[in-house]
Here is the input.
Amino acid sequence: MTIDHEGEFVLPSSVAPESAKAMAEAIEFYSSEYDVQMFQGAPGGHKTYLGVENSACRFCSRGRPEVTFKKAAHAISELLGNRTLLSRYECDDCNARFSVFESDLAAMSYAARMAGQVLGKKGVPSTKTREGKSRIDFKRDDGYLIQNYEDDPIAEIDEANHTLTIGGQPRGYRPLGVFKSLTKTAVTLLRDDELPHFKDALTWLREKDVSTNLTPGSLNFVCMSTFTPGESPFGNTKVILLRRRSSDGSGPALISLVMFGCTSYQTVVPSPSLDAHHIGGSVKMPPIPIFPFLDDARVRGLTQFGLRSLASPSSEQTEGVVTFHVGSIERVPPS
Ligand SMILES: [Zn+2]
Here is the structure.
């Protein structure tokens, strides 16, 4: 397939790499060409901080007393389930600006977070219909509680196919806002000495809107995603950064993979300087094999692979629909 003018997007065979051959090629590609670094919060609520005390802000270069650093700056979005990995180099101004892009990410990932039982600041997201009569809530000990009224349905059971489809209100999000939020996370996780290669991305991140000083990556704004049915099979929310080893390799210089609940998002972090040789040429980026990061005991089905463009600055609507596989159906008298 071709992604706009920036170059050709080469997948090993197709977007759905169920075949063992495509997966083996992807493993070979990433292990021979990339260094992998993983980031996640410590379990048990113990907070870890990136950076040193009294750092200047990584994004706007300002320090105390010009700006304040009072808010907890989550290195990976709290809404994706990270509560404990924080950074010391994000000022309150930048934090407030990024929260707007984070609401785009919140809307796009809403159904994924609900299905993946991802605990954000306010617990697993609930959902309700536009009329507000039917609703779905998640309770830690009881699972999902679905209150479904016939005249205002939110859920549908297909007994023949053993599926339960739930749909809440569609939510509006700007795809480019989502990309900006994912880019901000990756830039937060970089080492200080890498930042000069990402100054274009930093300039874009400093803008309040999504389009000003826009920096396309070598694959523009592609987001590859996975969905693995199960009880939060990724467990603890985590991000891996994949750094290309050679300066002229066939893949992008920096790839980020965010994993939460049942879902992962794979994006390229824009660096026109490191990826200069890709402009107008072809770029290779197979789906990263996510299987080593899944807890097999929690997996309940085959991983589905997806590909979307996050290039649009205009608001789009989520489908707001999730389909679950149902093991068994039991009829109980209404209480
Ligand atoms: Zn700042």
Summary: The two ends are 54 Å apart (CA to CA). Residues 251 and 285 are 6 Å apart (CA to CA).
